[in-house]
Amino acid sequence: MPDPLLPLLPGPQDADRPWLICYGIDERVELTGHVLSMWLAKTAGFVTSESAPGDGVHVALPPHWRTVAWACGTWLAGRSVLLGSSEEIRTAGLVPELSVAFTPESLCEEAEAQVLVPSASLALRWPGELPALVLDGAADLMHYPDHFTPVSAAGDLTCLSDLTAEMAVPADPGAPAGTVPSGDGPTILTRAQLVARVEAAGASTGADKASASRAVLVRSPDTAQMLQEVLVAWRTGRTAVVLTPEAGDDVAAAAVRQEGITEWVGGPQSH
């Protein structure tokens, strides 16, 4: 059975239109599908070269274009994304193959390898001196090729584990893909379940209407929700405009105005 997640990700052939735009304070970064696919390829190459499959790639990053690149690059490599604090991961008894973060304090010590990523959108390397044995998630990434042969994974392979205990527990094994049961606890989604969620959300957006916005504002403080909303935008052929957590209402309003956005989740008057 073909991997259901790979078709949602940008590839080298997606050259013309922007797929991802990220707004921060005094920052705007635009990535076409082609450019984004190169970042995903480099990330996938990094992940496969620096680690063996384990309990997941710990992505301790807030909503940001780099977060999208690391998560989607992990999926391109056939691996799973692990969200949560180092304490939550330790409590769950998990050992990530990689831990990726903006700050040393957010790294998981138990991970096979640790990676620090600069939060500045255009930075080409980690600012300052790296801790011992920690890799540079910008400079070291640039050594990897712009192309990566995707690892086609089975639909029942786990692709996202969110240990923040704010979402639902895993679906019952006999439930249809994408079923979201009630209850507190971590979210564990297979590739098929994540795609089912994305397709269901996309079907309810009205993106097929002539009046549909070409871009969608993604403003969520939750990384898992942000990733899903980005995939929904891509699934419906639209640009995902991501706001970083520090971006205020003035930045949101500017993004809406500049990108011609008429639809968004968590719009400029929220938060």
What does this structure look like?
InterPro entries: Rv3268. The chain is an alpha/beta fold and 271 residues long. Helix content is 27%, strand content 21%. It contains six helices and twelve strands. The strands form two sheets. The protein has a seven-stranded mixed beta sheet with strand order 7-6-5-3-4-8-9. The relative contact order is 0.16. The model is unreliable at 167-183 and 266-271 (pLDDT under 50).
Number of helices: 6
Helix content: 25-40%
Proportion of strand residues: 15-25%
Biggest sheet record: 7 strands, mixed
Alpha-carbon Rg, integer = 18 Å
Q: Strand order within the widest sheet? A: 7-6-5-3-4-8-9
Oligomeric description of these chains: single chain
Tell me the overall shape: globular
Order of helices and strands: EEHEHEHEEEEEHEHEHE
Structural class by SSE content:
alpha/beta
Mean pLDDT: 88
Structure summary, number of beta strands:
12
List the uncertain runs.
Answer: 167-183, 266-271
First-to-last CA distance: 41 Å
InterPro entries: Rv3268 (IPR017523)
Protein name: TIGR03089 family protein
Organism: Actinomyces oris
